[in-house]
Amino acid sequence: MAQDSAQQAPDTSPAAPPRALLPLILPALVVGVVSSLLFVGVSVGAEQLQGVLWGNLPDALGIGRYSVLWIFVMLFATGVAVGLVVWKVPGHAGPDPATMGLNAPALPPVVLPGLLLAAALMLAGGPSLGPENPIIAVNVGLAVWLGRRFRPGSPEPLWPALAEAATLGALFGTPVAAALVISEALAGTRTTGQLWDNIFAPLAAAAAGALTTDLVHKATFDLHLPPIAEPTAGDVLAAAVVASVAALLGMAAVHAFPHLHRAFQRLRHPMLMIPAGGLVLGALGALGGPLTLFKGLDQIAELARDPEGWSAGQFALMTVVKLAALTVAASCGFRGGRIFPAVFVGTALGLCAHALVPGVPPALGVASGVLGMLLAITRQGWVSLFTAAVLVASPVILALLCIASLPAWLLVTGRPQMQLHKDGTPIR
Question: What Pfam family does this protein match (any one) (predicted)?
Fold first, then answer.
């Protein structure tokens, strides 16, 4: 009985007094706004450069914008450009991106300009990676450097937490994603104080980042797919099957990841590794078509506008090609994140399921496919569930996704992740 009473006892962790939390609000808001503006600046700059590289330039040369020749030329040229940055720019654009996840180390200031440049060139040039990892790393490095300079007495872990939360808020346009990620991270650590005391400042930074992005660079994740009115037993089965298939497909890429990384590392020089990766990506882009290029958010919106516009075979081809392109780009040295292209892979797989079995609603197929793929690629449960749910904006689907996450998680937990230790072995 005494043991049962101890287990049922409420949390007695001391709550932080207001005077301890209030001084954190201003730094959190500043970090949130600055992190968002940096993200928007890089994104807009990359979009403008993309318009030149994939529009103005091929038009001036009389070459088809997305012809096989131009896809090869651009992916190889992007590999050369990023390789030059990694080779010659001070800091070498940061550590090997295959070893980095959303929790970025505090990089020295000398590294940050090269990392930003490499990320912008990658986003504009067409490799299948997103902006999240390099932008988080730059914002963390900048926040830590400025925090030490202007608030030297602040706790050291404060600044990375603020920058990561702010960037996640800016990326997703809502602080909810940041709150979920922080809560998941805190669950695996020994922290003092109550949960909301620990996420108070990061949540403020995430809210500031999200609001700033919404004000200056409006974007939405909602694909406006037809909602599900009432779930059926068939919907439950379909969600579980699609999420599980996506998780298995994602795990195939995860298992291939360290082998591809070792193959590129044998070339030993960024001017060989990254251009070689660009050539492979050019071949994949020529095979999969222009929709399989870039980070994938604009492309999933195009797929969702006409779910019946492609056959099951075409969706399957795009799924496999995009997943292969993600794995190659992440392993050869391009600076970028894996979440956004994984969302495209899950979307294409979900629409393939709808094309094969019309009884699977497009919204359900997309959300389940994204959920399973992100669980395999990121191993971030809350991010996976949140991203899948926000794509379709349907309360009914959220319950189905919670059920579908169970078999998908059993397939991925405890297995290698798509992130490596410095010695090249996968993190588990």
Answer: Voltage_CLC
Beta bridge partner(s), residue 426:
420
Q: Where are the domains of the chain?
A: 24-216, 233-412
Predicted local distance difference test score (pLDDT) of residue 244: 96
CB 201 within 8 A of CB 180: no
The helix/strand/coil state of 148 is: helix
Please say whether the beta carbons of 183 and 175 come within 8 A.
no
Cα separation, 116 vs 47, whole angstroms: 14
CA–CA gap between residue 100 and residue 133 (Å, rounded): 7
3-state secondary structure 11-62: CCCCCCCHHHHHHHHHHHHHHHHHHHHHHHHHHHHHHHHHHHHHHHHHHHHC
Pick from 21-25, 162-166, 198-202, 406-410 the range whose average pLDDT is largest. Answer: 406-410
Query: Residue 259 burial by CB count (10 A; 0-12/13-18/19+): exposed, middle or buried?
Result: exposed
- Tell me if 233 sits within 8 A of 395, measured CB to CB: no
How many Å apart are CA 377 and CA 384, to the nearest integer?
A: 9
Task: Quote the percentage of the chain above a pLDDT of 70.
Answer: 92
Does the domain made of 233-412 have the CATH classification 3.30.230.10? no
Position 152, amino acid: P
Count how many residues are written for the chain: 428
DSSP secondary structure code for residue 337 in this structure = B
Positive/negative CA dihedral, 153, 157, 159, 162: negative
- Report helix, strand or coil for 420: strand
Tally Cβ neighbours within 10 Å of residue 189.
7
pTM: 0.90
Long-range contacts of 233-237 (CB under 8 A, 24+ apart): 234/359, 235/361, 235/364, 235/400, 236/400, 236/403
Closest CA to 76 of 250, 281, 259: 281
Please name every residue paired with 420 in a beta bridge, in sequence order, or none if there are none.
426
Would the pLDDT of 97 be above 70?
yes
Q: Which helix (H) or strand (E) holds 347?
A: helix 339-356
Place of tokens 């940055």: 85
Q: Closest Cα to residue 244, out of 424, 369, 416?
A: 369
| Distant-in-sequence, close-in-space partners of 63: CB < 8 Å, separation ≥ 6 | 69, 70
Rounded to an integer, what distance in angstroms lies between the CA atom of residue 197 and that of residue 8?
22
Would you say 117 and 138 are in contact if contact means Cβ atoms under 8 Å apart? no
